[in-house]
Each structure stands twice: as C-alpha cells, then as structure tokens.
Amino acid sequence: MSTTANWADPGNNAKADDALSVEKPQPVGQDGIGDVTLTSPRLPREPKSRREQSMWLAGCVAASLLLFLCYVRVSGTVPVTADGGNNAMQAWDMLHGNWLLRGWVLGDASYYTTELPEYVLVEIFRGLSSEIVHICGAITYTLLVVLASLLAKGDKTGKEGLIRVLIAAGIMIAPQLGPANAGVLLLEPDHIGTGVPLLLTFLLLDRSSRRWWVPAAIGLMLAWGQIADQTVLAMGVLPVVVVCGTRAYRDIVRRGEPARAHWFDLALAASAGCVAYFVVSALFDALAFPQAPYLFFVAAALTTIAAAGPAPSMVPEGSVSEDAPASPALAPARSNRSNGRTLIPPLGVAASDAHSGSDRPPFAAPTTVRTMRST
After folding, report:
1. Mean pLDDT over residues 152-164, rounded?
2. Domain regions of the chain by residue span
3. Cα–Cα distance between 265 and 242 in angstroms, integer?
4. C-alpha span between 236 and 174 (Å, rounded)
5. H-helix or E-strand containing 37?
6. Residue 57 Cα to chain centre, angstroms
7. Residue pair 144/196 in contact by the 8 Å Cβ criterion
8. pLDDT digits (tens, 9 = 90+) for 276-307
9. pTM of the entire structure?
10. 78: Cβ contacts below 8 Å, ≥ 6 apart
11. CA-CA distances (angstroms) from residue 297 to 167, 265, 310?
C-alpha cells in the first residue's frame, strides 16, 4: 500500500487519513502555521476466522462430553430411588402413546415439560432401566454447567470472557459425593433441573435486542418451565416482574419520561404476569401444589414492603422534655437525641417497672410463667 498523498488536495488528505493508522505531520500551510499532528481512526478488529470458531466450538463440545462422562460415573455411586423409577416409568408410558399420562397421579412437581421429554429421548435408545436415571441426571447437570458459564460470560471475549466462564464453571463443576449431594444434583428429577429453562430464558434476555417478539418468547419460556415446576413463579416470573416494573416506575413516574420509550420493560412485565396468571388458573385444580399462587403474592407483598423503606418513628421528636427528671426508661431516649433517633421501650414493660427500684433491667420484659391444662 502506498503511503504518499497529495497534501495540497483536501480530498486526498481525507483519503490518506482513512487509509493510514500512523501519525503524520501536516505540512506548513500558506499562513506559516506550525506543524499539526493528525491521528487517523483505528482500524476495526478483524473477526475471528472460521477455523478459530470451529476450534472453540470443538473445545466446548469436548469439555461438555468429558463432564457428562464424569457425572454419569458420580451419579452411579448413588442408588436409584422410587422417585426416579416413577419418572422413568412415566416417560416409558408416554413413549408408548400415553402422552397425557392418563391414570397417573402426578406429584407436587410433574416435570412434564422439562425432564420427562429428556427421559423419553434417552429411553428411545437405551430402553427402560435404572441406568436411565443416572444418564438423564448427568445430562441435566451438564446443561446447567454449560448454560451458567455462557450466562456468566455475557458479551465479553478474550481473557475476560474466559475468566468469567472459569469462575462460573469452577463453582458448579464438582458436586460432592454422597446421597445428600450427588443424590440431589445428579440423580432423579428435582427442582435443580428447572434451572435449564430459567437459564435459557435469562440467556435470551441477555443476548437479544429490543424486538417485539422477545417479550412473547420470554412469556412462552416461562410458561414452559412453570407447567413443569411451580417454583418458576418465585425464581423466574417474580424477578422479571419486579425488575421490569421497578425500572418502568423509575423512568416513567419518577423521571417523567414517555411510556412509549419504555415499552420493552412494560411488555416483559405484562408477559410474565399474564403467563403466571393464566398458567396457574388453568392448572390450579390439576396441580398438587395449590399453595404456589399464594407464595407468589406473599413474595410480591414482601418485596413491596421492603421497597417502601423503614416506617417513621411513632414518638414525636419533642415529646420528651429536656427538663424532665431522669428515668431509667427514658434515659436511652435522651442519650440518643444527639444522633437524631428515639429509642422506644419494647412492649410489655410497665411504667411501674421503670420507676421501681427492682434489680430487673428497665428494658427486660417481665417473666411470665403459664401453665397448660392437659386435655
């Protein structure tokens, strides 16, 4: 590439600035002004070649396969229980035509749309045996490790992205042995497998742009997980509604910004809320865990109370006179007036206890002994 340019022509100067990435002095003009250093913009980073992308993908697949083989080995140290055998037989019945599981009494979490289809796919190749439980448990946990690593990586590349992946994978990569650990993480379906649709939902939120179909897709994915396990109400629906609702309230109500500019947050909150309402309403009679809607509303109420902040003091600031005689019950309130706080004695402390000369501390509640009549 030639590095010469006609400095008398401004058009050639612009072309030279775009082509060169080195600093070059501007020649002295007709007015005799001194040299001026111009710096052209940096060239964009070249995208990775297909060979590098293929090598990165092959490395991820090889690592996932190695993790799967290790998890199958660890899962084999724990015997299969009745819950895992029950799910394997349900999948076997679905594979033979009973897709709606007629005649079955489902548990508190059916895993009908999450792990049961996984069992069906594995039983197509392996048949019905106790090994199915170990294989499916290993597949589920491998997916959790991979999806958590991708979510932790975000949009970072290079060294920073690799460090994020290693931190997330390092926390989850080695579950401890024994029924209390491997029996929960690497065996029959449990609430741990619900993390797969949740992580996929959060990955879509993290990687996608603000398009009209994203709220609809998020609602469908939350419904996918919620039909299988009602804990998605607390782990997926509630965070989306609270975060998007808080952001919309801050920008629209507090800052006075137009609602049209924040349609994405409003659409996400509405989609998650509608999915929670319609799924719970449709499956309320069929679910074995009907307390889930009440848990959702209790969690929402607690979130609202926590966001409201501490309640103001019920004692006016000037209710205690500075000239009042010293009293053990009022001494803490007078001593903390300089800090702007007023301490109130707890309930159950009588006024006579505060002025009496008993040895009991003024803030100690009187001891009451109650007897219970046996029936």
Report:
1. 86
2. 60-193, 208-305
3. 10
4. 26
5. strand 36-38
6. 26
7. yes
8. 777 767 766 555 455 555 556 666 666 666 55
9. 0.64
10. 178, 179, 182, 183, 186, 187
11. 35, 21, 21
Residues in the chain: 375
Residue 348 backbone zone (phi > 0: left; psi -120 to 50: alpha; other: beta): left
Output phi, psi for 98, to 5 deg: -90, 70
Q: CA-CA distance, 152 to 144, in Å (whole number)?
A: 12
Q: Which of 234-238, 266-270, 304-308 shows the lowest per-residue confidence on average (mean pLDDT)?
A: 304-308
Quote the distance between the C-alpha of residue 9 and its chain's center.
Answer: 58
d(CA 180, CA 209): 41
Contact of 164 with 101, CB cutoff 8 Å: no
Looking at residue 264, the DSSP 8-state letter turns out to be H
Count CB-CB contacts under 10 A for residue 264: 17
CA distance to 42, 49, 162, 207, 329, per residue, from 46 (Å): 12, 9, 19, 21, 74
Contact 132, 116 (CB under 8 A): no
Please compute Rg for the chain using Cα positions: 33
Contacts of 92 (CB under 8 A, 6+ apart): 123, 128
- Nearest by Cα to 104 from 88, 81, 123, 118: 88
Give the Cα separation of 69 and 142 in Å (integer). Answer: 10
Task: Return all residues near 190 (Cβ < 8 A) that are at least 6 apart.
Answer: 184
Tokens of 70: 């290790």
Q: Which whole-number Å values give the CA distances from 231 to 119, 225, 238, 269, 327, in the listed order?
A: 21, 9, 10, 18, 53
Per-residue pLDDT tens digits for 179-223: 677 888 888 888 888 999 999 999 999 988 888 899 999 999 998
